[in-house]
């Protein structure tokens, strides 16, 4: 069956590759009249045919000499004339009466790139640009949660566990990337807020299918954070403070010479998170969180060389330390805490113009060392009234004994991406990622308490994801067809440690392989409307915690099989520039996913471990509309409906015992949620070269269950919630100095989006930012 699917994908790709068109073609390039830089995603129209310019400003369109042609680009005067040559060099003049120079540059680097990415992908993609990130007083989690199809499941304030949920799939099933490189932390999750907003150029959110060139595993959705690589000297400093003694400090220093750029950044975040909360299942008991402090320090730097044989050579390094107290919800935890240190070194090499200007490649090598420590050695357990009792296990508040663990994880990762242009309208892309991870856990305190070695056993993981993608456009560039095959390989070695197993644990090696594929298309219906459809067989490889457990409560499951999903997504994208440069955008998507081998925790009465048994299917739709209502008022609204349903007819592990939750909605996943965003802006309201913005955000989540309701007496309901956020942004000197004030959750609603764990109520925030720019010394491609 897998071979048949693979052969079909290859056959379709070859059929498209061998298809030729005989229509006449006119090609050319579109440039800025002043800077002579290429304009990306300019619209070219000739009769009923149209196209957009590529990343280098070039285009090809079905037309003949003597036909009329029109070129449009937001922020520039239109150009229209009769074609007199089969190659056209077109220069457009900036419309400075409508947009100042800063806005034109921002449009070229951001809005045009958004349009290009949307047109170049067959999967639905949401793009958040740096202009939407930098001045915000909130954090990245909150910005992501305002997008269509996305929820952020949080267990508390800043630094607490936060999992992204896209179309019903969450946490480790949604792959995270930085500059196309997959991220995996020891427990399979990532604190997205650990990445400062200052270093982000844009955030790409792929829904329903993950482009094969990203190369990682996952079950159909991904977030790729693209960091800034601008060849300009600058100083970027910000300071922010908000309720519950939360503060953020960030400083970036960047110096650019003709062929060398060097920079360093320091970011410090801390929070007390001492908000009040109601204790679940204890009526009228409200307490202040007093053991939830968080602190992180990130220091990073890099140097880039241009104009060598390589177009670009990057060397980067980073150090990060975190300290997080563990706050109890049903139990008053007072002494347990987590600490972590991470060291990362990165080398990037890139080169274009090889093999008759058809081949380009990018190579990334990452070396990382991650130390994670957990301390839980209290001799007492604490009650909410402040009294204490001796720990029933002698020591420890969380598990069945004390812990003073330290897990050292050494990682080596590489990514190789080769892109070969077969012709003007077809490309072949090869991507290969591998990850080699060695874990060395140690916990002498827990071993002494257990009377035997439970923790000090090493483990090894190697996994590889290899993909080959073929893309073909017809000559008028209306139809884009994309097909890809992906191979997943996973090798693990570890010990079957378990507190209930006598003697030495068994040493186990395992190898698994799996295939995936992607088939998709994008059809340009007219100048403003795109249709997209994509089908994917997606695979997620087990992570280290699922495979190797924690030595005490969670036993190893080294023979776990990968999760797999069959995903179908189709939608329409509408994007039109109206009169007076007002823009209207709309997008609607429907999706279906059938997920198998879902990895979940299960118990046998003595211990718990991860097993492959759950099956679910997911159906839903999301819609988004954004518009410039007037020259000074912008508004956007999005809505998502989704159902995640248990598809196990029989209780897992049996073949005849009916499953009481069959066809019931999986708990703890909202079915209906929506967001409204509005912005009023005015230039030069107070001073010349100033910008004023008033921003309002509304978020609604309908009621949903956090447990299976098997009878009328089961009450596991998280109530519906409607929250309001408002902020004022004032920028001076063309965005060089910005002050932002924000009130989040204005009406102080009780917000719960992860079981019974309440989030902070109303919060006040203020942020100051200073950006000092130097001169650009090098054109970055």
Question: Would you write up a description of this structure?
Answer:
With 781 residues, the chain is mainly β. The chain folds into 2 domains: 4-98, Carboxypeptidase-like, regulatory domain (Immunoglobulin-like), CATH 2.60.40.1120; 121-776, TonB-dependent receptor, beta-barrel domain (Maltoporin, Chain A, Beta Barrel). The chain contains 6 helices and 44 strands. It has a 22-stranded antiparallel beta barrel. The longest helix is centred in the N-terminal third of the chain and has 20 residues, at 101-120. The two termini are 43 Å apart. The relative contact order is 0.11. Mean pLDDT is 85; it is low at 1-23, 96-107, 186-190 and 777-781.
What is the compact description of this entry?
Helices cover 7% and strands 53% of the residues. It is mainly β. The strands form eight sheets. The chain has a 22-stranded antiparallel beta barrel. Strands 8-14-15-12-13 form a five-stranded mixed beta sheet, covered by helices on one side. It has a four-stranded antiparallel beta sheet with strand order 3-2-5-6, with no helix packed on it.
């Amino acid at each position: 069956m897998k071979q048949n699917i693979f052969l079909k994908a290859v056959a379709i790709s070859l059929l498209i590759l061998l298809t030729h068109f005989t229509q006449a073609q006119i090609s050319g390039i579109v440039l800025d009249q002043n800077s002579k830089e290429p304009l990306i995603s300019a619209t070219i129209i000739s009769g009923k045919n149209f196209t957009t310019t590529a990343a280098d400003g070039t285009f090809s369109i079905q037309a003949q000499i003597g036909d009329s042609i029109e070129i449009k680009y937001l922020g520039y005067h239109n150009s229209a004339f009769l074609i007199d040559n089969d190659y056209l060099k077109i220069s457009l003049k900036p419309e400075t009466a409508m947009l100042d120079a800063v806005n034109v540059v921002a449009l070229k680097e951001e809005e045009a790139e958004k349009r290009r990415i949307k047109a170049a992908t067959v999967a639905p993609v949401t793009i958040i640009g740096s202009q939407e990130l930098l001045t915000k007083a909130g954090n990245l989690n909150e910005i992501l949660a305002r997008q269509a199809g996305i929820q952020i499941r949080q267990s508390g304030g800043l630094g607490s566990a936060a999992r992204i949920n896209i179309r019903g799939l969450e946490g480790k099933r949604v792959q995270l990337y930085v500059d196309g490189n997959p991220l995996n932390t020891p427990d399979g999750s990532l604190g997205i807020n650990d990445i400062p907003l200052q270093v982000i150029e844009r955030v790409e959110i792929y829904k329903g299918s993950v482009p094969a060139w990203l190369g990682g595993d996952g079950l159909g959705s991904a977030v790729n954070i693209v960091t800034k690589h601008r060849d300009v000297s600058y100083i970027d400093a910000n300071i922010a403070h908000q309720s519950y003694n939360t503060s953020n400090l960030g400083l970036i220093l960047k110096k650019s010479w003709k062929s060398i750029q060097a920079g360093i950044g320091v970011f410090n975040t801390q929070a007390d998170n001492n908000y009040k909360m109601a204790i679940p299942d204890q009526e009228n008991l409200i307490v202040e969180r007093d053991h939830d402090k968080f602190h992180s320090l990130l220091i990073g730097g890099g140097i880039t060389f241009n104009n060598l044989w390589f177009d670009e050579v990057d060397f980067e390094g980073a150090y990060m330390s975190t300290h997080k107290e563990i706050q109890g919800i049903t139990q008053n935890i007072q002494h347990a805490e987590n600490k972590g240190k991470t060291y990362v070194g990165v080398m990037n090499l890139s080169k274009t113009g090889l093999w008759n200007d058809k081949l380009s490649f990018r190579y990334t090598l990452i070396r990382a060392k991650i130390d994670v420590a957990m301390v839980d050695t209290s001799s007492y357990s604490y009650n909410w009234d402040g009294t204490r009792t001796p720990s029933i296990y002698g020591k420890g508040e969380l598990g069945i004994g004390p812990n003073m663990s330290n897990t050292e994880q050494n990682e080596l990762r590489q990514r190789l991406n080769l892109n070969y242009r077969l012709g003007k309208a077809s490309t072949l892309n090869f991507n290969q990622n591998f990850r080699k991870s060695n874990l060395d856990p140690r916990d002498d305190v827990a071993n002494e308490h257990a009377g035997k070695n439970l923790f000090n056993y090493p483990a090894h993981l190697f996994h590889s994801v290899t993909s080959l993608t073929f893309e073909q456009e017809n000559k008028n560039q209306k139809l884009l067809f994309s097909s890809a095959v992906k191979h997943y390989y996973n090798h693990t070695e570890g010990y079957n440690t378990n507190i209930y197993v006598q003697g030495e644990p068994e040493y186990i090696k395992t190898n698994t392989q799996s295939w995936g594929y992607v088939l998709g298309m994008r059809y340009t219906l007219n100048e403003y409307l795109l249709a997209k459809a994509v089908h994917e067989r997606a695979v997620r490889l087990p992570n280290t915690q699922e495979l190797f457990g924690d030595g005490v409560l969670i036993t190893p499951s080294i023979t776990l099989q990968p999760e797999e999903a069959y995903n179908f997504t189709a939608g329409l994208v509408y994007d039109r520039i109206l009169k007076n440069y007002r823009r209207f955008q709309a997008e609607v998507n429907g999706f279906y996913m059938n997920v198998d081998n879902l990895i979940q925790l299960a118990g046998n009465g003595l211990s718990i471990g991860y097993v492959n048994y759950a099956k679910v299917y997911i159906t839903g739709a999301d819609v988004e509309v954004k518009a410039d209502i007037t020259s000074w008022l912008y508004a956007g609204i999005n809505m998502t409906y989704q159902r995640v349903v248990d598809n196990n007819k029989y209780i897992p592990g049996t073949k005849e015992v009916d499953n009481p939750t069959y066809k019931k909605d999986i708990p703890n996943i909202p079915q209906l949620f929506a967001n409204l965003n509005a912005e009023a802006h005015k230039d030069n309201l107070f001073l010349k070269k100033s910008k004023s913005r008033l921003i309002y955000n509304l978020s609604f989540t309908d009621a949903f269950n956090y447990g299976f309701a098997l009878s009328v007496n089961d009450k596991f309901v998280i109530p519906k919630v409607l929250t309001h956020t408002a902020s004022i942004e004032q920028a001076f000197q063309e965005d060089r100095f910005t002050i932002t004030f924000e009130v989040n959750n204005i009406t102080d609603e009780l917000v719960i989006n992860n079981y019974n764990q309440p989030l902070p109520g109303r919060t006040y925030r203020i942020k100051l930012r200073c950006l000092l720019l130097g001169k650009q010394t090098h054109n970055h491609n």
